[in-house]
Amino acid sequence: MENSGHQLRCTGCGGVSGQRELQADFRCPHCSDLYEVVYPSWSDGTAAAGARKPNASALRWLWKERRSSREDADQSGVWRFRELLQVLQDEKNIVSLREGNTPLYHLPRAARATGILGLYAKHQGMNPTGSFKDTGMTAALSVAHELGYEWVACASTGNTSAAMAAYAARAGMRSLVLIPEGKIAWGKLSQAMDYGALTIQLKTDFDGCVRVLTEVVRRAPVYLLNSVNPYRLEGQKTPALEIAEAMDWDVPDHVIVPGGNLANSSALGKAFEEMRYLGLTLKMPRISVIQAQGANPLYRAMQKNAGQTLEPVQADTRASAIRIGNPASWKKAVRVIQKSGGWCEQVDEAEIALAKAEIGAEGIGCEPASAVTLAGLKKLVLQGKVRPEERVVLLLTGHTLKDSDYTIAYHRGDLLKPEEFGSLRDEIEVTRRNAVELEASVDSVLRELEKARR
Ligand code: F0G
Predict the structure, then answer these.
(1) Could you tell me which residues come within 8 angstroms of residue 12 by beta carbon, excluding any fewer than 6 positions away?
(2) Distance between Cα 440 and ligand 1 center (Å)
(3) What pLDDT was estimated at residue 3?
(4) Protein residue whose Cα sits closest to atom 1 of ligand 1
(5) Ligand 1 pocket: which of 122, 123, 133, 287 to mutate (most atoms within 8 A of CB)
(6) What's the confidence (pLDDT) of residue 2?
(7) Residues 23-60: b if buried by 16+ CB within 10 A, e if exposed
(8) Is 328 in the pocket of ligand 1 (CB under 6 A)?
(9) Is 384 left (phi over 0), alpha (psi -120 to 50) or beta?
(10) From ligand 1's centre to the CA of 221, what distance in Å?
(11) d(CA 268, CA 258)
(12) Is the Cα torsion angle 78, 82, 87, 89 positive or negative in sign?
């Protein structure tokens, strides 16, 4: 056991590894599966662990109390819950940008439209670099910092690169970013550059970038910060804690997340399981994963063989963050979907675009990849898998400003090809709000206002 109180256990063969013995690609040397962080003193479910379980009401009180503290670690919505992520030997090594503590919004219009009155959005796009990746990055980059690495690296569809570059800059470390050429949103590329990363666009897709980077980290002293790194998932647990806390520790019935590389669903599942084990909450919500139809390897695997094997696909969707054909953490996602009684659905380009506009119309907005959650919920409701009395939380993973080109094209009416509209043309038309160009005269503005009021 490490001094920090955690162990690394292979999710395939159960083999345990020390932190410094992990392979550079975070794969188990025996079965090639991925590791997860466990805490022998309380997360194992053994009699001894049970005896040393922290007291649930003391934890709830402590975590709330920390919100009014002036300490950096307490002000972070990740490290505020540090009793459940004991991954560092020394808290001095925390690298934080005050991530987390994101809003849980009610979505009144979408609630009326879907008939799910208790419909909420946990907006992880309200993190410092604009996505949910910050919560995982503060955890894993702090570990890299503690281990004494100078360089960190990731392959990314955009958000991970921005988060990693920011946290590395904060810690005075160097970062290497590999991104697919021409296939990420410009805003994200600009962030990585601004935060000082060595940013390399490779002439391949995300899956190709992962292949190259896996070899690079084997040959160079660079710490890998993709979500195969189990410490990322410890940070990404914390939105689940915040959701439970915001609902007075009475967890929702259903949490819906977008699926790309498929790590986030399992991080949230792990948190809900740990909370229940510790007596912080009484039940586990269903966790459902929604993929874009053009990047749907998990959906296919679940349909074909209940997720026993997964065949990679050539990914193609405008939701660039989840344009991933060979997801690293698919087995973890299958486990959490099955254990929690959730589902995996797919949604097409028109469904994603309309859902994104609807989330925008709530005064909230999100990036295209996040909008698959609302599009997926609509399908689950039609299939009778979500009932009107259930409380549902959509995890909005990224900020609406990430992909303004997408949003502008939607409102101008040039995003979708005619054959992509399906049955949604009319619904899409009423949500479009194109900008109007006029002569600089009062009368022309008043005429436009009159038209809009009708
Ligand atoms: N939503 C957004 C906004 C994302 O950026 C990602 C992943 C996902 C959802 C999917 O999460 O991979 O845990 O299933 N983005 C990656 C990146 C992979 O490089 O930023 P996942």
Answers:
(1) 28, 31, 32, 33, 34, 331
(2) 43
(3) 57
(4) 397
(5) 133
(6) 43
(7) ebbbbbeeeebbbbbbbbbbbeeeeebeeeeeeeeebe
(8) no
(9) left
(10) 25
(11) 12
(12) positive
pLDDT in tens, 425-442: 999 999 999 889 999 999
| 164 close to 95: Cβ distance less than 8 angstroms | no
Contact 367 CB / ligand 1 (< 6 Å): yes
**Residue 1: is its pLDDT beyond 70?**
no
Q: Identify each DSSP E strand in 108-173 by its residue range.
A: 118-123, 151-155
pLDDT above 80: residue 412:
yes
Count of C-beta atoms within a 10 Å radius of residue 415: 21
Helices 368-382 and 349-360, packing angle to 10 deg: 100
Q: Which two tokens stand for residue 72?
A: 């950096």
Separation CA 157–CA 178 (nearest Å): 9
- Give the pLDDT mean for 53-81: 95
262 lines ligand 1 (CB under 6 A): yes
Q: What is the mean pLDDT of residues 189-195?
A: 94
Q: What is the DSSP string of 205-265?
A: -HHHHHHHHHHHHHHSSEEE-STTSHHHHHHTTHHHHHHHHHTTT---SEEEEE-SSS-HH
Q: Identify the H or E element spanning 350.
A: helix 349-360
For ligand 1, the distance from its centroid to the CA atom of residue 322, given in whole angstroms, is: 6
The answer to whether the CB of 35 falls within 8 A of the CB of 26 is yes
Is 17 strand, coil or helix?
strand
Whether the CB of 321 sits within 6 Å of ligand 1? yes
Residue pLDDT, tens place only, 2-40: 457 899 999 999 999 999 999 999 999 999 999 999 998
Ligand 1 contacts CB of residue 131 (under 6 A) = yes
In terms of residues, how long is the chain? 454
Q: Where are the beta strands (DSSP E) in 259-401?
A: 286-292, 344-347, 391-396
pTM here?
Answer: 0.97
